[in-house]
Amino acid sequence: MPTEDYNLYTHFQRQFLAHADEELLCTGDGQSYSYSDIERKSAQVANFLSELGTSPGDRITVQVEKSPWSLCVYLACLRAGFVFHPLNMAYTESELQYFLDNAEPSVIICDPKHKETIKNIAGLSLAQKVFTLDGTGGGDFIEYVNTAADAFTAVKRGMNDLAALLYSSGTTGVPKGIMLTHKNLLRNTEALVEAWGFSSNDRLLHALPIFHVHGLFVAIGCVLLSGASMRWLNNYNAEEVLRFLPESTVMMGVPTYYTRLLATNKIDTEITRNVRVFISGSAPLLEETFLEFEKRTGHRILERYGMTETNMNTSNPLDGMRKPGTVGPPLPGIEVRITDDEGTVVPTGTIGNLQVKGPNVFIGYWKMADKTTDDFTADGFFNTGDKGLIDDDGYVSIVGRAKDVVITGGLNVYPKEIELFIDDLPDVIESAVIGVPENDLGEGVVAITVPKSMGSSSEKSIIIACKQHLANFKIPKRVIFVDELPRNTMGKVQKNKLRNTYQNLLK
Predict the structure, then answer these.
(1) Is residue 1 part of a domain?
(2) Is the pLDDT assigned to residue 2 strictly greater than 80?
């Protein structure tokens, strides 16, 4: 009996063949690309990378602006069996150093303005395989790719072959490489297409970045597995979204997208009449946003829950009751349970540790076997680090984050990473980084800092120092100086007290 081919692109390819002459995506400025256009361009990328000597399983690091060509790079990696390693454009030199040292890519594709920095980081052995690609399709990478053949046979992939390597920092401050397989992505995408009713009649308004799960695997995957099309916006702009909503049937976004639409006072039933579903994720959706959006448009936003390690775990139903403040029941094939600290499943309605099991769950952390073992139970459940509960209807609610992750504008910020940097500054004894409510981004980063002496450091100087070494979305919006941090009897900083104290700081 033949072994199933799990290559995600092989499953996408059915739609590439069925809809060859139909539009796959159209950019905000009206550039249209058919399924066959993207199929040929991604084949050229796969051929060029293969001609460099890249082999299946090799990592391809990509730090570029969102564009149709960046989509082709992702698809080429799937086709050729390379491991796609996307990075946020906001990462600084010191952050990039860790990612490149750890991932050990065979090829790096970056924005032209970062080329010299990355070549210096990469070292002599890799410097000749650093190529440039900008948001308009310019750069030396495309010059080389355009000479390659435009046909490529997808490489067969098994269930445990890696498709992507994404990084998510942990409480230790050391980023963890999350190994996602072709099977993980395929099975999760199949579940989402069914759960959300995607078909070739859909048009997705795609305004998300594509360096993380939401915009890359969830949004693009649903389109390509169903034969749908996309309005492809390079970034989120509320006015642009309003312009293209009338032609769209689906929109995916982070809560910030919806609060910004409401703030325009232009969102209404008429402009959204063609949309069949609005989907929200990557951060908690406030009940007031849910209710106000329904009041203005008649649409009840569908909230779901996922994470880098698992893709999507739960979703409010397409047809049926969507409960504000919940992320819905588990998706088909996925088990979710709530346990106490000893691992015992708790009664319905009880808050505890949320654990997940299913074909969507990653196979482990890159080069961190011990950490992988720590985060999985003996019976194969992944400890998400989130606190949650399951109600009588089977709907999951996320009530807290054990790992103290700050989610700002849909992007994860891990406090320990920023604390380690601030604590290293000459005039600082220690710090505690928290997230507090912020109207636009959902949460804003705030650093509570104990200086060596009051007046020895300033809020401005700490923020400037952070800007030189950390990505923009990690920079504290405020730095507060205190004599000491609140601690419990075990000496642990009580961040819950800090969050309560400063909950109105950014409002």
Answers:
(1) no
(2) no
pLDDT digits 0-9 by tens, 189-247: 999 999 999 999 999 999 999 998 999 999 999 999 999 999 999 999 999 999 999 99
CATH number at residue 490: 3.30.300.30
Residues of the domain holding 454: 406-501
Are residues 323 and 377 located together in one domain of the fold? yes
Give the tokens for residue 288. Answer: 């007031």
Instruction: Give the predicted TM-score (pTM) of the model.
Output: 0.88
**Domain termination site, one of 350, 369, 401:** 401
Classify strands 302-307 and 311-315 as parallel, antiparallel or unpaired.
antiparallel
Q: Which residues is 411 bridged to in the sheet? A: 408
Within 10 Å of residue 422's Cβ, how many Cβ atoms?
22
Q: Is 292 exposed, middle or buried (0-12, 13-18, 19+ CB in 10 A)?
A: middle
- CA–CA distance, 199 with 223 (Å, rounded to integer): 8
Alpha carbon of 317 to those of 12, 116, 202: distances in Å? 25, 48, 18
395 and 417 belong to one structural domain:
no
Residue that the structure tokens 């992702």 belong to? 74
Q: Judge whether 312 lies within some domain.
A: yes
- Of the three residues 150, 166, 183, the one that is the final residue of a domain is 183
Tokens for 357?
Answer: 């099991």
Please give the pLDDT value at position 1.
38
pLDDT at 85 over 70: yes
pLDDT at 127: 82
Count of domains for the chain: 3
Q: What is the rounded distance in angstroms from the CA atom of residue 108 to the CA atom of residue 77? A: 12
Give the tens place of pLDDT for each residue, 92-151.
898 899 999 999 999 999 999 999 999 999 887 798 899 999 999 999 999 999 999 999
